[in-house]
Amino acid sequence: MFFYGQSVSLLATWIQKTAVVWLVYRLTGSALLLGVVTFVSLIPTLILSPYAGSYIDRHDGFKVMKNTQKASLLQAGALAGIVYFGFYNVAAIIFLSLAQGIINAFDVICRQSMMVEMVDDKADLPNAIAMNSTMSNMARVVGPAFAGVMLTTLGEDFCFVSNFLSYLPVLFCLYLMKINPRENNVPVNNIMDDLKAGFKYITSDKEMIGLIMLLSASSLLLAPFTTLMPIFAKDLFHGTAGTFSLFESAIGVGSVISAIYMARLTAINKLIRVTIVASLIFSVGIIVIGVAGNISFALLGMVVGGCGMMAQSSSINTYIQTHARPEMRSRAIGYYVMAYLGISPIGSLMIGVLAEWMNPRELVAMEGVIGLLIVGAYLFYRKRLSENPATRRPFYKVIELAN
After folding, report:
1. Is it the case that residue 251 has pLDDT exceeding 60?
2. What is the Cα–Cα distance from 4 to 342, expressed in whole angstroms?
3. Are 199 and 41 in contact, with CB atoms under 8 Å apart?
4. Which domain holds residue 334?
């Protein structure tokens, strides 16, 4: 039921996401405002994720998830109304993007932490996480493609209204699901003590904090390349909304390829190796996009970059969920979400500013080179870590989660 409902909603979410950035760029022609829209939609995740993780650890996560979906329904309805009635106010779009970012700060952590409660056999947890990622990335492939057709035939308002309506099947499916509330939800410490305990736990696990720092650097300096895709589509390759949706779909195709691989991965001890290889692939793909002289080569780079980006985040997510202590899982996921989604708006804003006075091709290629340096720094960190094994914490095995 979760898979069915979220599949519909995520498809519509990507349709709207594609429509929003295209609408803002069509109205303003500003790379800076593209960065601002992305910034406000994700910056709440950076600020609120640790708090959201602690909050969800103290409450019924399934109930919180249903409430966040209701709030998303209202936000999507307001945005659909603005566009449908032709109230093209960029400030209002930015405000509603900020509201959605606040909701998502709680919703994403809920959906991630609920995986372990929806899977009966905990040995299947890595596959369930990968299946969830596959669902998300299939929506990323199909959604922009649908958006391109809708934008050119049915209009922008249809994209926004469809996202609003998509929350109805989500809520229907959630209310059909039967999940027992977690035990020990009664808070013992105050929220500040929980935040401190979560931070202490994350920083004491040297393997986990290393992965989170790697993901943070990638989110800040590599992932924001997607912010410039409207510029590549419209200005560099002289395309239309359909070209932009094709770029987004190419990134999604690469993500699906790696998601299928992750769904078949059974050896948990390979997650670190997968993360390193994926990070290298991610960087190479971005370099290819930056140096591409034609649209076919650029699409190839987007497929490769999407493959590396998804595999990197999915392998780190799986590692955290299978190694974190149960009572710390939501808080650990909170820091993962902060690194994955919360850091990227700063990078999006930064790349939007730089693109105002720097060649977008050179800027994206430079991101890829920086990505290779980040991987090198992480390998050096792991080498130092292996020289001091006493600094590592024992891994929390999947079999222990089952108990």
Report:
1. yes
2. 27
3. no
4. 2-176+196-402
